[in-house]
Design goal:
The structure is a homodimer. Chain A contains 13 helices and 13 strands. The first copy, chain A, is an alpha/beta fold.
Chain lengths: ~350, ~350
């Protein structure tokens, strides 16, 4: 399996680190090495058909700020010059146009390559087109890390809960908002909590995307299209962020043994992001930067999963799980279980 | 796939109900019917190689108290007289000897049949023997519902987290204890809370198995053997139940923004059930009869799953998920995902 990585920011570098950590795992499981044959960042690329060394890539990026020594104008021409089997698309999210990520994914699927991405822009804007393209060309297209980071919500529903009828998913899909709301539970004002989130590196200088609920809305769209077979886009989501939540509202909730959490909800007829009251002790009443999602099923009842919604190696772990899943599919499923 | 069911109490009947609800699902997914060819309860059996009607089985059990019209002396002779592919073993748990369940499972695996069970006795006593027997005879042996009911902890670790190094699992593995502790959080004494649990049908008349931590200990053993490749038994677990937890201890915890929960913990060098302090808002601080388990991994960090730990249809759902997994394995893995 020859891998092309587009994007070498935090997540791309995390993936390179994970590849170093899991080299033995892949060799033992599949009897062969995975090789990274090409990496592109925003302006340069590194290419070696016999395999690039992940440690060298990380070192060069750290010391020079660039992953490659050669510059490129057109990323698609670089892709065409590489023999690869799988694109890992982790370039910056552009929620308005899909950006370079959308072009790269289209190009790879169009050429019959498997694709793993955590890039929410292309998924929130052009999900059904991309899935159809993958199907047409018999490619695998996976995106576990695009919703909830390390929390395996998509694969949980697709694999473990495949025999269930899922009626809805409700989740805390943005760790920054959950951090702010947790700080407000402890008595801080919204402004203080936001400032602390920025100081901790959880919120960006312009926090709009998080606190207005736009990031959560992208994830709701991905869940709706991938798990409910809907065909919706970002503009279909009813969105309310957390900026209007007052300290008084938080106190009132607490006096009723509740907390306020920003909840994304998707079902066959719902597509919404809004603050909601959650009873303390409920699986969605979690604190801090965690993400959580509750899947309501007809036989098993409600199943809730939580995990770290962001982070370098955590997001890379979701890519690795997609990679294992694709390699298992490609070789047939036997041997997937630890015992027997 | 021809199924033999041993045990037709709550879980066996729940499984029959689930088979009715999922008939179309199995036909669409595999292009054929699943048939129940034999069901045994404690003294009778029903047998029809062309397939028994689950609704009729349920009706007869309800009206006569027995699933069959013929009585048997030796269950193994009944099994020998049936042509079947898969045993669903859901007879009553006997944690001291393994009971009829252990004999039935051994007999089926010895004859080269796949087995699904939720029976904790055989798993807590003879896990490694049974797994070795399954492996020797090339049988599938699954037991998702034996730990945490509908909560898919085993398949989560085996499938979604297969690329992770799991260092420990900590969990709330007994819903009865969690119900009692939640009631104590709300000011009840242990005695009051236990009485209410008994009135609600969550605790048995003799609640020893739950409140002394024995049930949780069985589940810890199953997790240790199945996910940590250990070879341990019930007697290896360090067990402290919840009977010594005072209202004062609960209050003291609450004043520090904590709750007390009965936690089972397993790692490479730990095997323990004991009450622990859990911060409010932590994924393991859940209330009521829910079960939860936190899996600590090296890349993804902590992943927590929660769900209903008991219940007729909920436990049956775990058997159904094992059944889907076995049928997928038997036919090869393709088509397991909802999209493409």
């Amino acid at each position: 399996m020859r891998i092309l990585i587009s994007g070498f920011g935090t997540v791309g570098q995390g993936f390179a680190e994970a590849m170093i950590l899991r080299r033995n795992f892949f060799q033992e499981r599949y009897g062969k090495d995975l090789t990274i044959v090409c990496v592109m960042d925003s302006s340069t690329f590194a290419l070696d058909q016999s395999g690039l060394c992940p440690a060298e890539l990380l070192e060069r990026k750290k010391s020079t700020g660039k992953v490659g020594t050669e510059r490129y104008q057109d990323p698609l021409k670089v892709m065409d010059s590489v023999e690869y089997d799988l694109l890992v698309e982790v370039s910056p999210t552009d929620i308005k146009t899909g950006g370079a990520g959308l072009k790269n994914i289209r190009h790879a699927l169009g050429a019959g390559k498997d694709v793993i991405t955590v890039n929410k822009g292309p998924l929130a804007l052009k999900f059904c087109e991309l899935v159809a393209l993958a199907k047409k060309n018999n490619c695998k297209f996976r995106f576990e890390g695009s919703v909830g980071g390390a929390m395996p919500i998509i694969n949980l529903c697709r694999e473990n809960l495949v025999g269930e009828n899922i009626s809805s998913i409700r989740g805390i899909l943005n760790g920054t908002c959950n951090f702010i709301l947790t700080k407000m539970d402890n008595g801080q004002s919204f402004e203080q909590a936001l400032k602390e989130a920025q100081q901790m590196g959880y919120a960006e200088t312009d926090p709009t995307n998080d606190i207005e609920g736009y990031d959560s809305a992208c994830k709701v769209v991905i869940l709706a299209n991938s798990l409910f077979k809907r065909n919706v886009a970002f503009s279909d989501v009813s969105i309310t962020g957390i900026t209007a939540i007052s300290s008084e509202a938080i106190s009132l909730a607490a006096s009723n043994n509740m907390v306020i959490r920003l909840i994304g909800e998707v079902s066959n007829d719902k597509l919404e992001v809004a603050p909601r009251l959650v009873p303390k002790g409920h699986p969605l009443s979690i604190t801090g930067t965690l993400n959580a999602a509750q899947v309501v099923t007809d036989l098993a009842g409600p199943i809730t999963i939580s995990g770290r919604g962001a982070g370098k190696i955590e997001t890379a772990s979701a890519i690795m799980s997609d990679l294992v899943s694709i390699m298992d599919d490609r070789k047939g499923r036997e041997g997937r279980c630890l015992n027997q």
